[in-house]
# Entry
Amino acid sequence: MGSDREIDVFPPALIDALVDSRHIVVMTGSGTSAESGIPTFRDAQTGLWAKYRPEDLATPEAFARNPQLVSDWYEWRRQLVSKTDPNPGHTAIAALTKLVKQLTLITQNVDGLHQRAGNDDVIEFHGNIMLSRCTDGHPATGIQGDTESPPRCEQCGAMIRPAVVWFGESIPAAVLQRALAAVETCDVFFAIGTSAQVQPAAGLALLAKQNGATLIEINPAETPLTDDCDYILKGPSGAILPKLVSALKQTSDHA
Ligand code: APR
# Structure
């Protein structure tokens, strides 16, 4: 149970903005999963993959050039993700969803941890690493295991690949539509654990700000968004978000 100290941690106007909000958008990046043990994208790759840049692995060209290498990298990431659990930051976002009038969760992450923490409606901007499809877009049932070479689509024979959005690929239209609709109507926008370097995700925060939303960043480091934020909560999301939820519970009638 949060002590009354938490309420003093945050500016009263920030808490009021959450209490009075009609629609909050939370956009998360890989920093939100860092405390679950999943390396962020732009930290140095650990172990076997130290010599590759993600940008050289997560592209259609890389897959065409060396489908086995790319498939192995995703298999390695799936194994990693399957051994991790949601952290208190994920759990706090799920709790926040129940405390406010409306919250739309957009994630750039492909690890499915928000769903496992209790958010059942997540806009997965970059897809989901646990799902596969063929290069022609047919959903593939099984996750590719350690096969000799990427398996083939039963429907059309094309190679099976992860159902994620690679560099140079566009966000699926329906996903982008939903995200933009939420950003257009929100009055509070959280950018949590993202370096705000990849478009169009990074642009959503500024779009929300242009529409009059209060912009809040949670990140131990500065990002290109920091100067435009109304509130900067500097630190790990796994520590900050549970405190924010406790503070909110102490002010509204959800105590
Ligand atoms: N809590 C909050 N933020 C954190 C934490 C933490 N515990 N640890 C690190 N961060 C921050 C870092 O300071 C950095 O700003 O998380 C951010 C991670 O940035 P990136 O590694 O660039 O990840 P992300 O912003 O999600 O990348 C966006 O780019 O690589 C593609 O498709 C990939 O979805 C990804 C997209």
